[in-house]
Amino acid sequence: MGGTSETVWAILTGEYPPEPGGVADYTRRVAHALARAGDTVEVWAPSRAHVLEQEDAVTIHGLPDQFGPRSLVALQRGLANRGELRVLVQWVPHAFGMGAMNVPFCAWLAARRGQTWVMFHEVNFPLRRGAPLKHNVLAVTTHAMSAVLAVRADRSFVSTPAWRARLHAVAPFAREATWLPIPSNIPESVGEGEAARVRTRLGVGPRDVVLGSFGTYAPHLAEPLADSLASLLSGDDARVALLMGRGSVAFVKRMLRPRLASVNGGKGSRARVIAAGELPLSDLAAHLASCDAVLQPYVDGVTTRRTTVMAGLALGVPVITNDGPLTESIWRDEPGVALAPSPEAIAGEAESRLADRAGLRDLGASGRSLYQRRFSLECTVRILREGSAP
Fold it and tell me: In whole angstroms, what is the distance from residue 146 CA to residue 96 CA?
């Protein structure tokens, strides 16, 4: 099965649409891309209906539980006597049930014969001195499970090189994992004129500057984002904030508008703020494409696991983000994003970039080029179809 000859894939995942989740979206896109490339693709995922479905060229096997005993029986029967079948596990400990401690599943996978690949979206929960016993029991168990999977795998993949060090720590004698960045999980292009129509519909003028952000607005990320946007918006009435994603409406109401009122002496703000909320994927892509730049702060730094960054890069939107302990060297070595030293420094980085509009456009073009060369779905499929040898 080397090269680009047809492969029969059995993809095991703890989540798959219509269930929400980044791994669910990722698995579906990869499954369909492999099928389009000419491979036979079957997905095995928990399903309340426990049925067999056909999704275009991808076969979906609904499992009766979250990879518990009944699912293991179904997998054993379904994967038996299938010839040269390549099993690909989308590993996230919590997605495989049993409170992220599904040791029986790992033992079953270790014992089965046949080609087995593992994609480590996560490796293990960290062990922390002084943490509650329950947390550290979970840490030790996920450590052991990932070690079993890494040793068993004929080939392993990681979503960021930072996970290589973790895998080596839990399984020092396992094969080295291949870096497999996560591509954007929304459309990578929009129709001609769609971005302009979004701006018109939102009441944004041709000279206005739209500063976007896309995410879930988790508290630890919302604070630096709100501070940055308040600083950037309060100094220029031509700037517009466009917030996209689940939680954006609450973010604007509870965090951004109070900050804008504060920096304007309690008199309120003329700054325009738009919370788009959750959008269909095609609409989300058009909204992102309508932005002049997107601000994406991350506590641990930007990594190739961040689909919110990948979405902007794929569409050629300039991305302003920040360095951190997990940031890969590629972000420093290639001009794909504007990299502030910390989440709190994003506003300053954005101000300097906005002062050079031609440079900002060049940044968007460089980001799109980097995405197409290194991070796109086509890159993922090419790496997966290289063959069975590590």
Answer: 12
